[in-house]
Amino acid sequence: MTSVLAFCTATVTSIPRSALEVVAAARSLAQQLGGVSAQALLLGARVEQQAYALIQHGADEVFLVDHPSLASLEDEVALGVAEYVVRQMTPQVVLFPHDDLAGGHVAPRLAYRLKAGIVTDCTGFAVQDHEIRWLRPVYGGKAMAYFRAQGPIQVATVRSRAFEPLPADPSRRGEVRPVDINPETFLPTVRAVERVETAEVEEGPSLDRAEIIVSGGRGMGSAEGFQVLHDLARVLGAAVGGSRPAADMGWVPHSHLVGQTGKIVAPKLYIAVGISGATQHMAGAGSSKTIVAINKDPDAPIFKLAHIGVVSEWEKVIPPLIQIFREMRSQG
Amino acid sequence: MHIVVCIKQIIDPEVPFHLFRIDPVTKTQIRGSHPLVISLYDEVAVEVAIQAKEKFGGRVTVITIGTKEAVQALHQALAMGADAAVLLSDPAFEGVDSFGKARILAAALRKIGSFDLVLCGRQAGDVEMGLVGPFLAEELGIPCATLVSNVVSGNGKIRLKRPTETGYEVLEAPLPCLATITNDETNVPRYASVKGIRAAMRVPIPTWSAADLGLDLARSQEERRIEIDEMWIPQREIRCELISGESAEERARNLALRLRELGLI
């Protein structure tokens, strides 16, 4: 029986949401192809428990590569392990999360080595007569396209949040098969020789996980202006993001840049302050469920893209808004 | 150190939504009167290369696959501070997929002969697949560092800075190697100076065809593994609900109440 294989990583304490998403995508694709099993390949150190969790979350079978050296995963080691397992198991499709490790490195190089058609950053797929068409945005989200991947094996990476993890079902049963391979046989040519933590320990949720994001642009005028957005974020339990001009001017760290050249986010509520609505920014923020724009320029393009708009200088709206949210909080 | 940067010229991605058109037959964006620019991350890669040259010495060559119009992108890179440029142009190059592009670029690099570092933007600003860089490293059989933002040391083994969620890592790689480039606060592309623009116009730019590269692309055309089946522009029917109020304070209050009513806060 052929299979769809989901590439997953985990740590001893947790499974990233992206792993559960890619397993959910594999399950859905396997069902639509019919007669195909959903397998997972799990890499990590002391992650056997997590392998069983992947079964509860939708995998039929898990190939486990559990080794102390995988506590910190080098790109080329992950590539070596993935290539070994895929060549052994010959799945029909290999799915990866579209993150820095897999989307940026492992999936493209694996596809090249297998001469496999590959489509990255997919947000969905359609199956007809056992043929898969991969859905993804192109041109910064201004258009959508269906792609076809040719080859004996297809490789795809799936965008974060495009698939909902399946709830854990403790009654699901499946095999966990340890893979007989020592990851240390893959000697990376490129190695991390230093890791530096620069960001202060941040309060509040990360951009990827936040339900609410408060984001600022050129209109904030200065790093001090951004401080007000941090105050607003704190009272809402939100994460803070910024547009490219704001990041290039150093008002927010580049890791908080939302846009075509930064993070692609999809929170429940996105509050854009002093942001004109350049397409580069909306490529990152456009999938938010509700977008609120606060801008003093009634002709700013953002008002054509936002669901709710406030035409005002942010200096006059945000401070009272913080006060009102505080009152609402204290009243429950 | 000889750094080769692979760039792509694209239609300015800042074309607003209402002027964006696609050709449903070719499944590509219609150029119209929109300007052509260097793809965002590729321009960042040019900046990274020039910074490395300034810090560690050496020279920078820029190459691109395109039509005659792509000379404009090469001129821009030269004006920013690159030393040489080559246009890879042939009707046979049109419509090849990322596998084919990696073959063309690899052939050009072999013809260039000696290089230490190859830089590619992490993904193009149009279709955004992010495949050509890693494919090219595989095609050349050289080490591949992905999503790095700068060169921090260039003697013997190279050290590259890679931004992470909470800071950065320093990667060490042997030379020659390929790196895909992402952006951070250290590599915002510079503007070309007037002097640089004048000097760029005097640099001869050779054009290399498939024959010059000794490439038979019939195989690449037959073996296309990535194809666009269908492309469309999704309807955006957003009607922005403007929050009313006499004063900014009143608008703030009405906004808060509306958000609570919608269950968003």
Q: Helices, strands, pairings?
A:
The complex is a heterodimer of chains A (332) and B (265).
Chain A (H helix, E strand, L loop, with lengths): L2 E7 L7 H17 L3 E8 L3 H9 L4 E6 L8 H15 L3 E5 L4 H13 L2 E6 L1 E5 L2 E8 L4 E7 L4 E5 L16 E4 L12 E7 L14 E5 L6 H14 L2 E4 L1 H5 L20 E5 L5 H7 L4 E6 L12 E4 L2 H18 L1
Parallel strand pairs in A: 1-2, 1-4, 2-3, 3-10, 4-9, 5-9, 12-13, 12-14, 14-15, 15-16
Antiparallel strand pairs in A: 6-7, 7-8
Helix pairs in contact in A: 3-4, 5-8
Chain B lengths: L1 E6 L1 E3 L10 E2 L4 E2 L6 E3 L1 H17 L2 E7 L5 H10 L3 E5 L9 H15 L4 E5 L10 H9 L3 E5 L1 E4 L4 E7 L2 E7 L3 E5 L12 H8 L5 E2 L9 H5 L3 E7 L8 E2 L5 H14 L4
Parallel strand pairs in B: 1-6, 1-8, 6-7, 7-14, 8-13, 9-13
Antiparallel strand pairs in B: 2-5, 3-4, 10-11, 11-12
Helix pairs in contact in B: 2-5, 3-4
Describe this structure in words.
The complex is a heterodimer of chains A (332) and B (265). Chain A has two domains: 3-185, Rossmann fold (3-Layer(aba) Sandwich), CATH 3.40.50; 212-331, 3-Layer(aba) Sandwich (Rossmann fold). In chain A, 30% of the residues lie in helices and 28% in strands. Chain A has eight helices and 16 strands. In chain A, α3 (75-89) crosses α4 (102-114) and α5 (223-236) runs parallel beside α8 (314-331). Chain B is an alpha/beta fold and 265 residues long. In chain B, α3 (98-112) crosses α4. The radius of gyration of chain B is 22 Å and the shape is globular. The termini of chain B are far apart. The chains are: A alpha/beta (332), B alpha/beta (265). At the A-B interface, α4, β5, β8, β11 and β15 of A face α4, β9, β11, β12 and β15 of B. β16 of chain A pairs parallel with β16 of chain B, so a sheet runs across the interface.
